[in-house]
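Forum: Protein Structure Q&A
Topic: Joint prediction for protein chains with partners

I've read a bunch of threads here and the consensus seems to be that you should model interacting components together rather than docking separate models afterwards. I'd like to see that in practice. Below is the full input, 384 residues plus whatever partners are listed. Could one of the regulars post the assembled result?
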Amino acid sequence: MQSDCYKNGYFNIQDIMASQERISCKFEIEIPNMGFLDSSSHDSNLKVGSKLDLPYWLIKAIYNEKFKFVNIDLPKWYKKFYHDILEADACVVDLRKMGPYYYDFGVLLLNLVETDIGLNIAKTLLSCFRSRFRRIMDLSAQTDHRDLYRAISKLDYTETEMYKAGQLDANGFIRWQRREFCKLLPSIIVTANKNKRKRTDSNGD
Amino acid sequence: MDNEEVEFIAENELITIIPNFQYKTFYLIGGDIGPFEPSVPTQVPLWLAVHFRQRQKCRIECPSWISVEKLEEIMNNEKSSELFTQMPNAHYMEITNVLLNCAPQDIPRADEVKTLIKDIWDLRIAKLRSSMNEFIKSESLHAKVNNLTLLEINTVRNLLTKTLKELHNLKQHVPVTDE
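Posted by a regular:
Agreed with the consensus. Here's the joint model:
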C-alpha cells in the first residue's frame, strides 16, 4: 500500500510536494487537546464539525475505512463539474491553477476516496493526460520559450517536466545541426575576466 | 544518448574516396584500410574520409543515393506511404550532414540535396509525431514502428520515455477494459 505513494522514490521532491497539498476535512469525532489546530476556537478540544484544511500526508496516516475520523471534502478541481470541463476540451484548461501537482495529487487522492469516485478521477486524469499530450509535444518543439510563457504557465508540474524533456530533445537536435559541439568555447571564467580587463584597459586610455 | 554519439556511430559507415597519394594498408582494430593508390577508388570509414578531405588528400565519391533524382523518388515514396519507408542508409541524415559540411564541392547540386534531405527529415518527423500522438491517445499497450533511423528516435527519446512513464503511472489506477 505504501509503495503507491512513492512512485518516484522516497526522497522525490515532486512526490513530497504533492503530498503537502491540503484537503478540506470536517471532523466527525471530538479530539481531546488538539484545539490549537483550529485557530478560530479557544477550546482545548477539537470539536465535532470543525472544518480544517489538513495536508494529505497527515490524513493518509490516520484515516482508513475503520477509522473515519473526518469527513473528507474532495477538492473542487477533482469534482464532477471539472471532470465535465476537462472532458469538453482539456487543452485549454489551466492545470497549474488547479494545483501545480494536478496529476500527482489526483493519484494520491485515490487512496482516500471510495472506489467508484476514485475510478472516475483516475479515468479523468488519464483522458486529460492523453488529450493534452499533443499540445505539450508541439510546445516543446518550439525552441524559444520566451514566446511560450503564457502557454507553459498552464501546464502542471508533471507536464512541465515532459515539456522540459521535449525541449532537451529539440535543442539537442538543433545544436547538432549547427554543429555547435565541434566549436571550442572559452570557459566562462575566461570570458567573465575578459570583460573586466577591457574596462580597466579603456580606463587607462 | 546524444546526437553527437549517433553521429559517431554513423561515421563508421564505409564510403568511397579517390585518394591522390600513395600509402600502404592500415591495420586497424575495426579492419584493414587501404592500400591507397592515386586515383584508385578505395572504401574507407566516413571519419577517415573526412580527415583526408580536410587535408586535401582525396576526393569523396558521393554515395549513389545522394543525388537529386534518387532523393526526390524517396521523398515521393515517403509522402505517399502512410508508414515509414526504408531509407537508403540507416544514417542518411548524419552522413549527408557530415558530407555537406566537409565536402560540399564533391556533391553534385549540393544545395538541392540539402533541401531534399531536410524535406524528407521533416516529413518523417511529422509522421513520427502524429503516430506518437495516436499511440498515446489510443488504449494500446505497444506499437511497432519499422524503418526509423537512430537519429530520428533520438529526437523524441526524452519526451516519449518521460510521457510513457507518466502514462503508466496514471494507467495503473484504471482497470483494463476487456475489448
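Chain A is about 50% helix and 5% strand.
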